[in-house]
Design goal:
Elements: H1 8-14, H2 16-29, H3 36-49, E1 53-57, H4 60-70, E2 78-81, H5 88-95, E3 99-102, E4 125-129, H6 140-150, E5 153-157, E6 165-166, E7 169-170, E8 177-181, E9 195-199, H7 202-211, E10 216-218, E11 221-222, H8 233-244, H9 246-264, E12 278-279, E13 285-288, H10 292-301, H11 331-339, E14 340-343, H12 351-359
Helix pairs in contact: 2-8, 3-8, 4-5, 4-7, 9-12
Amino acid sequence: MTIDFAKLQYQYQLYKHEIDEAIHCVLDKSNYIMGEEVKILEENLQRFTNAKHAITCSSGTDALLLAMMALDMQPGDEIITTPFTFIATAETIAFLGLIPVFVDIDEHTYTIDPSKIEEAITPKTRAIMPVSLYGQPADIDTIQIIANKYNLKVIIDGAQSFGSTYLDKTDSNWGDISTTSFFPAKPLGCFGDGGAVFTNNDALANKMKSLRVHGQSKRYHHQYIGMGGRMDTLQCAIVNVKLKYYKKDLSLRQDVASKYTHMLQKKDVILPFVDKKSTSAWAQYSLRVQNRDQFQKKLKERGIPTAVHYPMPLHLQECFNYLGYSQGDFPICELISNEVVSLPMNPYLEDDEIQYIADNIS
């Protein structure tokens, strides 16, 4: 048996007629930038999340940039975040001349550990950026209490978690601004790059709408230094189709995760943990194992792909040498980065595929 990690082609074939029709509708109108499908998707995202404002943009990375620019972060300001995430989280902070300040993660959820945040706060701290890792939100309520205490902003990096919930609210409704990504392999993906920002603050929403079109208040009148951060009309049309089926896909992802957990509970691995306050969008189903290289090699030989999210923490990346961190600074993060491995995860894994994967794990 050969397993497809994400089954993107399978999903396309499921919705092919509707997706092709939506694409050709855009082609027929030839309104490729800020066409009507952009506004329609934003309205649909608002209804799905109950966020007051959903603003599409060119990627999950650019969503983070828009959020920090809208909050008027200035060079030298510090943002507290996690070192166990994709580089875009801290890369965008550094790109704007801000300083990423890392704290270690919770050993069970792998998200930022709120108990370690306060000791990292300095007079230069302006915001906290928790990451909803593998589809699960961080302990946002506790983080928000800390932010309120120190008058800090909260930006949710929800690139992996669209549709997840924390205390029965989607993580798009937490923080000052929440972000997500529609990268193809994400739970809700387009056919290229795309993303969105969410906020319940009218002023921040209006500013981000301006920032994504080069800071324009009206054509050729620029109120802010902005960026070319629009999501293509074609990509919005595609996500509009997929969003109609997304609740079903989320339910199927949960089913797959539950079956994995049931079949693997007696194996010599550490299974994913979802906090009772949260639901996960299950962007990844990630185990912790000993001898990871051998584990991956064995599965590859049996037609089972795996991935490592993420093998090197950000504080040990060469590009962040200037921050002065070293091996041993965040021991839980370093431990988990050496053990974590992701199994195939998508809504369309069949029971016999899940069983085959489980049978090949010792």
